[in-house]
Write a structure and sequence with these properties.
75 residues, mainly alpha, globular
């Protein structure tokens, strides 16, 4: 399985989920390891570079919303 080349440097996953490891793990497995080509952050990083990706840009809003609803039930 391919993994996003920006997985280790993506601000969204490095900084946003330090207090919620379940959410981070689920999103990383779903977006970084399976569907990263559909990730908005990946698309911008590929075209403009990782430094031009807005810090508050969600990778995939629908997947994130579903995850937040699901992951919040785990806490």
């Amino acid at each position: 399985m391919e993994t996003c080349e920006f997985c280790d440097t993506c601000y969204f996953f490095k900084e946003e989920f330090q207090d919620n490891p379940h959410t981070k793990e689920y999103l990383c497995n779903t977006l970084c390891n399976e569907h990263f080509i559909t990730c908005a952050r990946y698309k911008i990083a590929m075209s403009n570079g990782i430094d031009d990706v807005p810090r508050d840009l969600l990778p995939d809003p629908l997947t994130c919303l579903k995850c937040f609803a699901k992951c919040n039930s785990w806490n």
